[in-house]
């Protein structure tokens, strides 16, 4: 009886004439699903609860017929297509009441471990389903969401699983429609529930450390090999395996410690210094013996505890000044202390004069009890003429254990000041103290400068001496002189690299003295030799003198030593040196002497073949 639509037919006959224009409606096709009112043409459903999921579209053939006339009843037809519109009148239903899932314990948090599905015969948004886990066993470890494309429930892992802790989980999942139609509330609840059972599968897992982070403490300068702590890891799998430990080496700092591979004990490998490094941070890796690829890592923090090993010292400055017109009780300097140890919170330093300085009436130390102290005067006025410097030994002591103390000597210089206490002048040393120079240092610097100046002067004098020409000063024959040169020449053909005047003595040449190396039988008439020009080549000079001696008939045929500064070319005898001579005289060949001319004939006969030599023929 639900209204669907209304159809209307028109008749062109005169409505005032009989029943010719009166129309009656009827259904020729479409029963028993629909009915029509004969008079009004209203179409209604004929069956209750028509189901779109069974049939969605219907074709209804409608006939309109008039009531008569001379030609009898005339009729017309039309087809009406009716489509059922879906409504949310069906709840979702699980195809089975229990779902079984198997999940490895190594599954990652947030990963999908299984899917379940409820069926809703509706269409479109009426078929959208929402899944929820019923509060209970699995609410803390699992979560479920809806896949919008398949309308499946995707079960995800919220926390890691552990087979050794719990092997199975059971919980319920509820599926319900997102979009409800209030017209069908009476039909019943639009939701369904199912049970999910999850079995955890045992997997081979890495060892597990007993703590997420290990923190240890050790005193500095602890002997090498001292155990300072231990880490512990266990294999929680059913077949428990042994565990091995090692340090995750990343830098040289890790070498300060070692770990026992079996016990996991950590020991020092080097001496530790808290002043250098106060904390060490490295990682320990544990692996299963049965499967070394399965490893786990833990962070280890080692704090180095301080040992009071350094005494406190006065912070700079170690030097101060006092005015000549200073009054008793006047503070001339406030000093603080510094400790190379990393001082703990609440560290206290105390200041006092040393025992030997306590009896002197010049200065005193006033400890302010706040890790500072003041140097105060104890007399009325000071004189630079009587004493320029005062040395004040100050003892500083810390409060750590064991107690450390040191004596620090402060230098106090007396200066001239105006009535307001402003320093007017001090001696030279006081001026240079701020830059770290003393009188001794200044004297050493000046002495070094003087030595450098002397060295420079001597070096310049020697250089000038070397530049002087070392000409021959002897009046002896040129052949009896040896000339030394400090400069290397350019070769035999280089005549510009030396002074040719040093190779000849014009006075000896012009005197034409008789040769002194032999005793002549008769006196020779001296010939005038042309003077040698200054630009004459040394080769030409030697050749000229050689020619003069070769053509001189009065020259004796005796051996004489003549030193020439030029080595000639093309000598038949080659070198006359004995260095390359044969080992015995018999092995030598003197036949070449015959080729030297008549002046060497006697020498050739003497050293030639023995049968050719006749002493009686020698004249």
TrEMBL record:
Question: PROSITE patterns attached here?
Answer: CADHERIN_1 (PS00232), CADHERIN_2 (PS50268)
**What are the alphabetically sorted keywords of the record?**
Calcium, Cell adhesion, Cell membrane, Cleavage on pair of basic residues, Glycoprotein, Membrane, Metal-binding, Repeat, Signal, Transmembrane, Transmembrane helix
Q: A single GO molecular function, which one?
A: calcium ion binding
- Top-rank taxon of the source lineage equals Eukaryota
Q: Which CDD domains match?
A: Cadherin_repeat
Q: Where are the transmembrane segments?
A: 431-462
Q: Which GO terms describe its cellular component?
A: adherens junction; catenin complex
Chief subcellular location: membrane
Topological relation to the membrane, as annotated: Single-pass type I membrane protein
Localization (cell): Cell membrane
- Domain (Cadherin) spans 1-94, 95-209, 210-314, 314-432
A Gene Ontology biological process noted in the UniProt record is: cell-cell junction assembly
Q: Which PANTHER family match?
A: CADHERIN-12, CADHERIN-23
What this chain does, per the record? Cadherins are calcium-dependent cell adhesion proteins. They preferentially interact with themselves in a homophilic manner in connecting cells; cadherins may thus contribute to the sorting of heterogeneous cell types.
Name it: CAD12 protein
